[in-house]
Write a structure and sequence with these properties.
Blueprint lengths: L4 E8 L6 H17 L4 E3 L27 H13 L2 E11 L2 E9 L5 E6 L25 E2 L4 E4 L8 H9 L4 E5 L3 E3 L4 H22 L3 E4 L2 E4 L9 E4 L3 E3 L5 E4 L6 E8 L1 H9 L21
Parallel strand pairs: 1-2, 2-3, 7-8, 8-10
Antiparallel strand pairs: 1-15, 3-4, 4-5, 6-7, 9-12, 10-13, 11-12, 13-14
């Protein structure tokens, strides 16, 4: 990274059906974090609206935006005005009938530094994302910014070590995961705790295995199921920042909105990779099986 100490702003927020109000509150919080010295601000997955994927409805495609377009123009202005790198997560309308779940990164001058289209698309009860999103076709390519090279992945991608590794092998200096994940109300408290800890542990593992900081920003609060077939999703918050040994630098609560700044010491990645040279010791000549669906 270009600076040894990066001040990362994270915004863990609840959402409403009022898209314009959601946008206004986010901009206010971005401005506030920038005024407090943030170099970068990271937003949660699909932050402009409620998590519409609880149901399959063609009307929800009206929420999508073009890239570039009015929504990206607005965030471009915010990034430029504050001189920050801004990581957003948008419902992209690429063409009629073709949509993606897309992270867009703005540089400090307001330009679009790059985008990442979510590669792994879930299809589970209350997470009907395959109805809406075509899997990404850009690949696992880091995005170059004035702060350095960042590897942005989105939510379901966070369960796949291959995605994190490929970002690291292409020179990402930090891994960032905008996220929308929560509990199903019928699960027991013990099961909810297992899910939360598994989610946290796998991402901390990506930090350790690749010697990189990980920034994960989740939404929070309850969002009802419009179909009333379930009790909706209780998003579990717990946004966090981990260092290159998986150590917690910050962990948000499960039931509160958060707008805070976390400092990342980028020099630590260099030191950790010297102590633990995992990339050096990889036996790449023996890994061909990883590209198979299953080895019978």
């Amino acid at each position: 990274m270009k600076k040894e100490i990066i001040k990362v702003g994270i915004i863990q927020a609840s959402r409403t059906s009022d898209v314009e109000a959601n946008h206004r509150t986010l901009v206010e919080r971005i401005d506030s974090l920038a005024a407090q010295g943030a170099d970068m601000v990271v937003l949660q997955e699909l932050h402009e609206s409620l998590y519409f994927c609880q149901v399959e409805s063609t009307d929800n495609f009206d929420l999508a935006c073009t890239i570039p377009g009015p929504v990206t123009d607005a965030y471009s202005e915010v990034a430029a005005r504050n001189g920050i790198v801004l990581v957003t997560s948008l419902f992209e309308k690429r063409a009629t009938g073709l949509y993606h779940n897309t992270a867009v990164v703005f540089d400090t001058d307001g330009s679009i530094a790059g985008k990442y289209r979510k590669m792994h698309i879930p299809d589970d009860p209350a997470y009907y994302e395959k109805f809406y999103f075509t899997p990404g076709d850009i690949g696992f390519e880091p995005i170059d910014t004035s702060l350095g090279r960042i590897g942005v992945l989105v939510c379901w991608d966070q369960w796949y070590p291959e995605a994190a590794r490929l970002m690291a092998l292409r020179g990402a200096e930090v891994l960032i995961y905008p996220t929308a994940i929560g509990w199903e109300s019928s699960d027991t408290d013990a099961e909810k705790e297992r899910q939360l800890e598994a989610w946290t542990t796998v991402q901390r593992g990506h930090a350790v295995a690749n010697g990189l900081p990980v920034i994960t920003v989740n939404r929070v609060g309850h969002e009802p199921d419009p179909s009333s077939q379930t009790n909706g999703i209780q998003f579990w918050g717990r946004s966090f920042v981990a260092g290159p040994q998986g150590e917690f630098l910050y962990r948000a609560p499960s039931d509160e909105e958060v707008a805070t700044i976390v400092e990342i010491n980028t020099h630590r990645s260099e030191q950790v990779r010297r102590w633990w040279p995992f990339l050096r010791d990889r036996r790449i000549e023996n890994y061909s099986g990883i590209t198979k669906r299953f080895i019978d």
